[in-house]
Amino acid sequence: MNRSILAGVWGFAEATLFFILPDVLLSYYALDKKNQLIRLCSITLIGALLGGTLMYCWGQYHYAAAYEWVESVPAINVELMATVKDNMQQTGLLAIFLGPLQGLPYKTFAVQAYGAGISLETFLLISVPARLLRFLAIAYIARWIVTGLLKNLPRKQLIAVWGGVWILVYGLYFYLFPS
Predict the structure, then answer these.
(1) Can you tell me the distance from the alpha carbon of 127 to that of 31, in angstroms, rounded to the nearest whole number?
(2) Can you tell me where the transmembrane regions are (predicted)?
């Protein structure tokens, strides 16, 4: 599959019901110095915005079903959903912007944004910097590590390090946020 298409599809999927972050794919793309990370991050963002729109509308028109489906995604539970709701009530749009830094999935904000009084347009506007900044940060940190700290490693070893890092990240995440 084409890199751009995969990036967009992954952004969409993770914004809906898939639980593996696009950061995994973007950091993999960063291993190849030829990949245009800004373009791939932007395409991932477009997919995420489309997925976020779908989840927002689902939460608006069928909140109970949307909530139940999102709550059933691995590492999302009732407590996490309540945390997201409380954060949006207390800090509004700032919660959507800071959520990714706290390990709070975008989809949990999307399905609850309408109930928090946030319009779709406003939700999408705050989603652009909230999602894109993290995508770019992860991709370029990975690129910096590959071109700096690990520049002498052969490709197979780079991939092994990349895989090990993500196994560790997800192991800790599922430990800290059990379903």
Answers:
(1) 26
(2) 6-30, 37-61, 123-146, 158-176
Amino acid at 164: G
Residue written as tokens 């963002």?
45
CB 48 within 8 A of CB 127: yes
Distance of CA 161 to the CA centre of its chain: 21
Tens of pLDDT, residues 8-23: 999 999 999 999 999 9
Which among 114, 117, 18, 21 has a CA at the least distance from the CA of 70?
18
Tokens of 19: 């639980």
SS3 assignment, position 45: helix
Q: Which amino acid is at 62?
A: H
Q: Domain limits of the chain?
A: 3-176
Distance of CA 33 to the CA centre of its chain: 23
Write the DSSP assignment of 108-172 as a string of letters: HHHHHHGGGT--HHHHHHHHHHHHHHHHHHHHHHHHHIIIIITTTS-HHHHHHHHHHHHHHHHHH
**Contact partners, residue 177, CB within 8 Å, separation at least 6:** 75, 76, 77, 80, 103
Helix then strand then coil, in percent of the chain rounded to 5, is: 80, 0, 20
At how many degrees (to 10) do helices 22-30 and 155-176 cross? Answer: 160
